[in-house]
Amino acid sequence: xxxxxxxxxxxxxxxxxxxxxxxxxxxxxxxxxxxxxxxxxxxxxxxxxxxxxxxxxxxxxxxxxxxxxxxxxxxxxxxxxxxxxxxxxxxxxxxxxxxxxxxxxxxxxxxxxxxxxxxxxxxxxxxxxxxxxxxxxxxxxxxxxxxxxxxxxxxxxxxxxxxxxxxxxxxxxxxxxxxxxxxxxxxxxxxxxxxxxxxxxxxxxxxxxxxxxxxxxxxxxxxxxxxxxxxxxxxxxxxxxxxxxxxxxxxxxxxxxxxxxxxxxxxxxxxxxxxxxxxxxxxxxxxxxxxxxxxxxxxxxxxx
Amino acid sequence: xxxxxxxxxxxxxxxxxxxxxxxxxxxxxxxxxxxxxxxxxxxxxxxxxxxxxxxxxxxxxxxxxxxxxxxxxxxxxxxxxxxxxxxxxxxxxxxxxxxxxxxxxxxxxxxxxxxxxxxxxxxxxxxxxxxxxxxxxxxxxxxxxxxxxxxxxxxxxxxxxxxxxxxxxxxxxxxxxxxxxxxxxxxxxxxxxxxxxxxxxxxxxxxxxxxxxxxxxxxxxxxxxxxxxxxxxxxxxxxxxxxxxxxxxxxxxxxxxxxxxxxxxxxxxxxxxxxxxxxxxxxxxxxxxxxxxxxxxxxx
Lengths: 304, 300
Prior knowledge:
heterodimer, A: alpha/beta, 6-stranded mixed beta sheet, 4-stranded antiparallel beta sheet, 10 helices, B: mainly alpha
């Protein structure tokens, strides 16, 4: 694993992109350093535009995009050091995973012998080694996603862009893919920009997030900063919930029913109040836990 | 010393070797293009069509050589030449339609599938542009077309030499046929490669491109011949210029300094060599420019 040096691998500096009447990105600035960074945003928020600019596929209208210290609008050679896993289908059906990854490694500039070795290694790391000589057309969705990840990693990039890597996967496949994403940074030392609509995936996988909203940078920072504990406690009891709510209100505690439980607001002393109220209301306590913010709240906040 | 059968996971190994850059990328596109065109590394069905056409084209050359050899055996040395039996200058005229159908059926596979399956998106995020990708694919199919034009001519040349009663005399008298059929082969291959890939660039379906191309080649010749006969004079000559199969054959005729069967009666011949040559370059470079422009702008 490469150490987290804090050095910027990707820098967007006053980045704007306009398509005729539509502004896809508007004066966006951020940096991405070593680790797994999630990029969140609804459709049209500017995620894909940002990724395309970083890959040097489209030029920005203004501002600069630096990847691994190079201005991507000046040279496409930097692409030999970055990987990209697209969201949509992009795999040939007739060739084997082994042949395909070898070809992709050569396309990134690796000599043929090294490309073959890297393809075999990458297929082993992505869990496709046993199936490597089968035509990709016969693979399951999960296996195809692994091939897509494999082609992004086969040339040992320093940075990889993953666009919705869990799209179309069942819960087990999704878990395995998220494990692979974590492994990509933890074991392979490759930094990741992970674009997703699924908040839970980003919350569980990423170290940092960037939130784009309508082409603007809405939020950015450590994931923990957005999911830190709130000053609320969630309580679940087996019975007498309404009695417990009445007792808490009598004690001057702000309480709101939520599903089968109750949410109470307050600082550290609230735990003592809840304990005493539970005894008084004779409500068998099943669960009491501090509440954390979810990333979904970010979007709710932006919408508001 | 480790116990037999012990497997070690050595973990992830970073690549520290050489990165050869864009030259390697374009070479990879080229190699892959040849494999696709000939069905190499794929199932028997992928190999069937290209190798069938290559076999038929070679067979045409072989049969021409056998007939010439038989004539010489029966009538004595030089009989085949006296009888004016078809030889190198006639081969492209005889086999041109098979070559064009070969290009129509095989070339679209090099471009259509990548766009239909979305693989083009993975090429374009590598250190190469759409124009580099196209250059690799174009060179790959040109190589295949050169095989399709040169191999049968080589078989014909070797067959004619072996079938002659005095092979050494034949070789010394006819060695200049070799550069001529190589040059004419380049003319045929460049033209058919460019037109076939241009049509392939307009669709993601190989079948549509193949049918359209075969139709284009099959229809333009009889149509232009018929129309040229109706409209005499310069108009007829210019209509005759639009026979797509004859455009490279006129240049081939210039190289051999002899007309082939399809061009012998074509009114376009009367327009002169310079016009015919210019027309060939106009079509080839024009189509090539449109093709390049389409891929230069392509984005994932």
